[in-house]
Amino acid sequence: MKEYKMRRGEHLDDRIPDLKDTVESYFGTVTGTEEHNGHELYVVDDPDNAVFKRILAGAAEYSGKKDKIAVHFEERPAEEVIADGDAAAAEEAVSLKNEFLLEATGRDAKSRRESLKREVEDDAPDY
After folding, report:
1. Number of helical H runs and strand E runs in the chain
2. If you count Cβ atoms within 10 Å of the first and of the last residue's Cβ in the chain, which end, N or C, has fewer?
């Protein structure tokens, strides 16, 4: 499960007023909800894209802090996707993930990577 921050001064509710509809428009019908780390996330058990097995997405809310988007993309192994002739679906899956996260956070892939890298560096122990 990964959590992504919004751009400075922005909030998830402002960027995506109806998260369930947005998840469905990118990945397929939401089949329910599931709790992870105290957050209620939407579940897509049968995603439209053949690469995905299952998707969890939702708001990660923290008291006194800005909300984040929490996502988990469960994917089929690359060898299986290629063997089934779904190489085009693999390209589309990458685009879908990046477009969804860009809409939710306002940050492109490079910016999200750099932010995650800074968080890891900040959490590193001092020796």
Report:
1. 5, 5
2. C
